[in-house]
Amino acid sequence: MGRLHNFHNPACAALLRDGILVAEDVGSSGMGAWSIRAIMIGTLISCGAAGCADAQTPSRAPIGGFGSPPDAMIFYVAHGAAGACGPGCADWIAAEGTVQWDTHKRLFAILDRQPPGRRLPLVIHAWGSANLNVAASLGRILRERGIDTTEGVTEVDACKDKSEADCFALKRPGGPLDARINLSDPRCDLACVLILAGGVHRSLPPGTRVIVTGRAIHNRLAPNVSEEQREALTAHFGEQFRAYLREMGVDAELLDIVDRNSGSQRATGLPPAEWARLRIVTDVQP
After folding, report:
1. Rounded distance, CA 25 to CA 34, Å?
2. What gap in Å lies between CA 70 and CA 58, rounded to an integer?
3. What is the distance between the alpha carbons of residues 174 and 230, in angstroms, rounded to a whole number?
4. 6 has which bridge partners?
5. Which terminus of the chain is less hemmed in, N or C, by CB atoms within 10 Å?
6. CA proximity to 267, closest of 20, 3, 47, 51
7. pLDDT band at 265 (very low <50, low <70, confident <90, very high)
8. If we measure between CA atoms, which residue out of 206, 168, 214 comes closest to residue 189?
9. Per residue in 148-169, pLDDT tens?
10. Helix residue ranges, H only, 49-204
11. Cβ proximity of 187 and 208 under 8 Å
12. How far apart are CA 225 and CA 47, in angstroms?
């Protein structure tokens, strides 16, 4: 068994604002009205976690309309050289940004644009204070659609020498864009792990830093949540997350680590041996 590394990096250990939504059911036609209602209610009071902020990650303008948060995760199709995203893989869907309350809408949109039977793998690059409710719902959507998942930074060829704003404008329509995957500093935070868990086949590049933080309750419209309500919601979301992890085939012990970090405001680094033991990955790369 690998050694767990605990540390008090403020960027990784602080309990941040937004949270986790687990949709109760995702059918083959997507989320019905009941599930959409569950998402919209669930994200008002939710359970959240800090991502490990990358000091070099630039901020971006909101992608949605009124009320859409900045840095929200976007999705676009990327095309690279043969084997760019694994054996026999040259095309993928890039997921990059912060998981926010409306991120599931953009995942549905990009998946629905693909031709019938085309299941491109999802390459995740998540950062920032994540809505973990939505991260788990993204995982359920991916599993329903039969999508594989991994982590990596997609670098778009046309973005070279362009500003972040100009690059964002290129990505926003959804591609396809010529690109490559940069694996020089792979990292996967708690939101990344929850999304990754939804993959039918899931892998992490060698050397990935998997950093698991704690979780906290947050109401994005009214910041003052009573202690009694906080305790009840923490237990409720904990049960939902354990159910989600078991459903995805991941050991629910992962949530024990998250909860220990919640009480101590620390983060835990998971070595590759733990990825396999906890079944975070299905494919262990040499």
Report:
1. 9
2. 11
3. 38
4. 268
5. C
6. 51
7. confident
8. 214
9. 999 999 999 999 999 988 999 9
10. 103-112, 132-145, 164-171, 190-196
11. yes
12. 12
Looking at residue 3, its pLDDT comes to: 53
Q: Nearest 5 degrees, angle CA 261-CA 59-CA 174? A: 105
- The amino acid that residue 53 corresponds to is A
DSSP for 1-31, please give it.
-PPPEEE--HHHHS--S--B---S--BTTB-
Q: What local confidence, expressed as pLDDT, does residue 188 receive?
A: 96
Query: Six-digit token pair at 101?
Result: 């309350």
Angstrom distance (rounded) from CA 207 to CA 128 = 21
DSSP labels, 82-108: TTTTSTT--EEEEEEEB--TTHHHHHH
Residue type for position 4: L
Residue count of the chain, please give it: 286
Note whether 110 and 174 are within 8 A (CB). yes
Asked if pLDDT for residue 102 goes beyond 50, the answer is yes
Identify whether the C-beta of residue 255 lies closer than 8 Å to the C-beta of residue 75: no
154 bridge partner residues: 181
**Structure-token pair, residue 131:** 């809505």
Using a cut of 0.85, tell me whether the model's pTM lies above it. no
User: In what helix (H) or strand (E) does residue 258 lie, and over which residues does it extend?
Assistant: helix 253-264
Q: Is the pLDDT of residue 20 over 50?
A: no
The owner of tokens 């009573």 is 226
